[in-house]
Amino acid sequence: AFVYFCAKGLFELSTVFMSNIIIHIGFPKTATTTLQKVFMGYAPCAYLGKGVRDTMLPSLSLDIAGAVLFADTRRFKEKAPELRDEIAKSAAATPCLMLSDEAFSFAVHMEIGHHWRCNTITDHEVIADRLAQLCPEARVLMATRNQFSFLQSFFRQRVKRNSINVDFETFIAGTLAATAHRSMLHALLYDEALEAYESRFGADRVMLSAYESYQSDFGSYLASVAQFCQLDPADLTKAWGGVHANKAKSHRERPAVRKLRSNIPRPLKKIVPKRIRSELALAVALPPVPTTFSGAHEKAITAFFAPSNSALARRTGFDLDQWGYPLP
Fold first, then answer.
1. Distance CA 32, CA 35 (A)
2. Does residue 315 contact residue 206 with C-beta atoms inside 8 Å?
3. Which helix (H) or strand (E) holds 207?
4. pLDDT at position 278
5. Which of 214, 23, 161 lies closest to 102, judged by CA?
6. Please, how many CA atoms are within 13 Å of residue 315, restricted to the half-sphere of its CB?
7. Relative to the CA of 31, which of 1, 146, 211, 259 has its CA 20 to 30 Å away?
8. pLDDT band at 273 (very low <50, low <70, confident <90, very high)
């Protein structure tokens, strides 16, 4: 009986500490990097996740990503108790703990899978369930983006990183063809993602935002995030400082220029001011990559996403039509 009550007390204590945990799952292309950098620089909050785990150095961030995104069911069950204890200890030592990784919502289509050379999991039900096992009392942040705009931005990023060698129309055709089994489009069914997290964490502990609603006013978004996470809005906005981590680029870097730039030592790069480097890169850049949907592809994507987006609009009250989301 004594052992039982001690174990029960330790579990309840860890649960109390876990109530100050914030899980940010993305989606990608919704100013995730900017939010991550804000929390990395926000003194009252400890940070775990992307930006730490992608260094591949041993860390709790890397262990969480490995278990949640890569482990099979048996291996996750083996790892979960130790990870839960480590997360609870980290949460107990700080007013708040941010665990942020857009791979939680889009891993299989991100570079993390290529770097680790094994299959990743992108199944909202599985990922939400695993995160709930590790941090049962956490608050969850999510953000959506118009799927047309998302696919265009995702493609441009892949071209910029030289990780795709087909044109936009071929990319979209392949993505649509994969819907017969499992496509990245399935990961962008936002109503399914929202249901997965609300059913495990509770609707009052999940904050969903539309990227379009804060694209031009990130400060207001931060204030609402702070309020949801029970943080000081003024302090969190001050930590941001008005700097966006990623700026949209319409030009493409020439492969020869990219190779040259990657071989120049960082100290040598800093000799030339960043503004001049940017102007030089733009002067020798390739023209913007076309990302126009054909009529047939636009119709097919609308048909795929319209039921999900309609359900999301009913559930949240969002006016998705004003932001051009695929709707009936």
1. 5
2. no
3. strand 206-210
4. 65
5. 23
6. 18
7. 259
8. confident
